[in-house]
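User: For a teaching handout, I'd like to show students what a predicted protein-ligand complex looks like in token form. I'll give you the sequence and the SMILES for magnesium ion. Please answer with just the structure.
Assistant: Understood, here is the input followed by the structure.
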Amino acid sequence: MSAKVICVTNQKGGVGKTTTAVNLSYYLAKDKKKILLIDFDPQGNATSGLGIEKTDKAALGTTMTEVILGAAALSEAIRPTKYKNFDLAPATPELANAEVEITGMQRKFVRLRDAIRTVAENYDFIIIDLPPSLSLLTVNGMIASDYLLLPVQTEFYALEGVAQLLESMKLVMKQANPNLRLLGVVATMYDKRTSLSAQVFSEIEKYFKNLTFKTTIPRNVRVAEAPSHGVPVGAYDKFSKGAKAYKEFTKELEERIK
Ligand SMILES: Nc1ncnc2c1ncn2[C@@H]1O[C@H](COP(=O)(O)OP(=O)(O)O)[C@@H](O)[C@H]1O
Ligand SMILES: [Mg+2]
């Protein structure tokens, strides 16, 4: 077994990257796939969203900061979550400093890929949650991945910046990782009470055609509440619309990868 690596990216913040990374990981694990979620955003939202206190650095131990600096192996940062088949490599704000430090280092673009190769045999999927930028961390994420998953919020300016992201992706493909593929676009925070969501969704479909996932993720208060309890929405309220949507989306994604 060698893991399929999926990075979740969009340089816009607040579009549902972390929520999608956490809940996709959760439902893949529920489907008996061995999962590693790598938090690669200095905000550490995937880390705290899984109930891991990111401010107590001593208790936290090794994180992606040490891994990317080459001071620790990725295996040392990995720990189990509360959920079967679901491991996490956490991030803290220090990862932002590490990003600056590696700028001056050798092999600065392939550090995450090299780290992932050391554990890829242990997993079915490795999901990377990326920061809201086209930064060195994001480029590391793209170079380390087989697939790029793009969450797009069904709001005004949804596709703003997307062309630029696709340009970066193309550049990565040309220079460093020809295997990278756009896995698809998932519409998030869909509000069926407004015509705007439907309008934006059809815009997304026009642009991305059949790369658009059929399943949309609704705006749902249970999805927003779950991280403050340190759990994925599926563990918080599995009957909520948000949980059901992420479960359905995970199924569609697995079909697509087959
Ligand atoms: N489907 C949803 N319904 C309601 N709130 C959501 C939904 N998806 C994400 N959120 C909330 O929106 C905010 C941004 O989501 P997040 O996943 O952190 O975005 P990103 O990682 O792209 O910055 C968070 O507070 C999150 O809880
Ligand atoms: Mg995030």
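For the handout, you might add this sentence: The domain at 4-185 is CATH 3.40.50.300 (Rossmann fold).
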